């Protein structure tokens, strides 16, 4: 991701989530894990670009979900997020139609753990899980279940074990 475009997207998402330090810090942490996992897993430049962008905007549906449904539950985020992501990506600029389509698909499915159809999707889910497991103070059994059911990349598993040493 080009530095200028990354900066503009971070600023746009920070403005979107203005007043919510938890959400701003969340998307920045998910991005850091997603980029690191993507690089370590050898993603090509295009896939990494899509992954990094999706990681920054993945929770863009929270605010409209809260406004519309009074809830930020995953299915509501997935329903409301793609349209908002598309608007933001077009405003920031620099994305092809195919890239926007894929990023919006990832935003609209990042809480759906079946039918994962690419390494960008796989890594986004793992990065979001790494951050959510910590932020939500998930207990040992929940972490074990996530390890068994979610994590497939070597790098994602590495971070999971490094963060939660009891899994050793």
In summary, what is this structure?
The protein is 73% helix and 0% strand. It has nine helices and no strands.
Record keyword descriptors for this entry.
168 residues; mainly alpha; Hypothetical protein af1432
What fold name stands as the CATH topology? Hypothetical protein af1432
Radius of gyration: 15 Å
The residue-averaged pLDDT reads: 95
Task: Count the domains.
Answer: 1
Q: What's the CATH class label? A: Mainly Alpha
**Overall form:** globular
The low-confidence parts are none
Tally of alpha and pi helices = 9
SSE order:
HHHHHHHHH
The CATH superfamily is Hypothetical protein af1432
Strand content: under 5%
Q: Determine the N-to-C terminus distance.
A: 35 Å
Helix and strand content put the structural class at: mainly alpha
Written account of the structure:
The chain has 168 residues and is mostly helical. It has a single domain (3-167), classed as Hypothetical protein af1432 (Orthogonal Bundle), CATH 1.10.3210.10. Helices cover 73% and strands 0% of the residues. Helix 3 (45-57) packs across helix 6 (97-107) and helix 5 runs antiparallel to helix 6. The longest helix is centred in the N-terminal third of the chain and has 20 residues, at 21-40.
């Amino acid at each position: 991701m080009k530095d200028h475009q990354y900066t503009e997207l971070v600023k746009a998402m920070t403005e979107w989530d203005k007043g919510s330090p938890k959400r701003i810090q969340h998307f920045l942490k998910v991005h850091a894990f997603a980029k690191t996992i993507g690089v370590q897993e050898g993603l090509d430049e295009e896939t990494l670009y899509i992954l990094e962008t999706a990681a920054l905007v993945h929770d863009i549906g929270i605010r409209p979900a809260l406004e519309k449904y009074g809830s930020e539950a995953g299915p509501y985020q997935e329903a409301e997020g793609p349209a908002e992501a598309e608007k933001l990506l077009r405003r920031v600029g620099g994305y092809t139609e195919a890239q926007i389509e894929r990023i919006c698909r990832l935003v609209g499915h990042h809480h759906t753990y079946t039918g994962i159809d690419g390494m960008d999707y796989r890594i986004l889910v793992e990065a979001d899980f790494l951050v959510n497991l910590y932020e939500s103070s998930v207990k040992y059994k929940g972490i074990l279940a996530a390890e068994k059911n979610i994590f497939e990349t070597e790098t994602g598993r590495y971070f999971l074990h490094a963060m939660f040493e009891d899994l050793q």
